[in-house]
């Protein structure tokens, strides 16, 4: 097995080796290279102590020197170089209380999380695979190094990482590893929301976002997203649906591009359905008002998981409007009003959300729904191509124009502008300064 190590990483390895030490690229960069992917980072593990690394290279940064990590800077690139180590007790379920440096590569590799991440390589020794990482790659398997219970006991975030790697790579999870996840899942409560969020987003934008089902089955989502568990257990007995709320969500995730906001919106678009479910006399389930309930719940969930405000705003708007226009025959005027209400900045995303929602429903009336969506999309592109007015910013008059025309400053200005926008949404040809000033004048009489 030959791995093409970048010149700068090779220079670091060669420099350490020339000084009498051992050094290898290790972990994710080895795994990705084997899989034919381009690694994001090239981490190096070495027998040399941090102070020896600092003496060998002109520019270093003490990024994690307490745990043996020094970043070697070569030009504008940084390479993390970490001394072989044995981790002490994990008092907080996340970080070792202390580390002990060791001359043994075996001891360093055996502390790592999964076999596919516990391989090392340099050009002289070739691939060092002491725990069956290559075998597990061939078997498409996520398996812990050594005792799975111990690995998750050391760092509970590894639970999320196992499921995330499974989703990113399309691998199954080894039975012993999966059993240990189910037992250790409650320990996720001690992991910070920010860390959970990072792993959840990586899972959602992966090729297999529906592997969130694995997290549900292993009791993982129950800890950080219990609302999803309730959705998985909420039936949809209705002609338009063929899955539970949760299964519909998982199928919808597969139907939308792997963009962060879109995948999060699909995850949460129906999260309020269980709270609004009603059964009619025929046993049919109805979820009237669920978009607004889903929006409120989505906002609470995203805040709980420490998402940034911009993501929260965009996702909540998509959730609020995901059902907008259902059952309506689209027209140019209807779509102009829809763009004005929903926002031109997210309307393309709104159309993608609606399509994914439709594709995860039953076949009942699917072609009719898709045809209505196609018309909506065509009308939207006509509006964009013709630069038709859909917002106050696009009106041919401003508040200052109204004041210059003799209107008193104050709240009335905003009210008149809003009425003028309503007129233009219905009649886009009226969006001229002359016509709108005349209509504003008429309103003032």
Task: Give a written overview of the molecule.
This protein is α+β, with helices and mostly antiparallel strands. The protein is 51% helix and 10% strand. A seven-stranded mixed sheet has the order 3-4-5-2-1-8-9. It has a two-stranded antiparallel sheet with strand order 6-7. Helix 6 (148-154) packs parallel to helix 8. The protein starts with 6 loop residues before the first helix and ends with a helix. The model has no long low-confidence stretch (mean pLDDT 96).
Secondary structure layout plus pairing:
Elements: H1 7-18, E1 23-26, H2 28-34, E2 44-46, H3 50-56, E3 60-64, E4 69-74, E5 77-83, E6 85-87, E7 99-101, H4 105-110, E8 120-122, E9 126-128, H5 133-139, E10 141-142, H6 148-154, H7 157-169, E11 172-173, H8 175-184, H9 193-204, H10 212-217, H11 221-224, H12 226-232, H13 245-253, H14 260-268, H15 273-276, E12 278-279, E13 285-286, H16 290-304, H17 309-321, H18 332-342, H19 347-359, H20 366-385, H21 399-404, H22 411-426, H23 433-444
Helix pairs in contact: 6-8, 7-9, 13-14, 13-19, 14-17, 16-17, 18-20, 19-20
Keywords summarizing the entry:
single chain, 445 residues, alpha+beta, 7-stranded mixed sheet, two-stranded antiparallel sheet, 23 helices, 51% helix
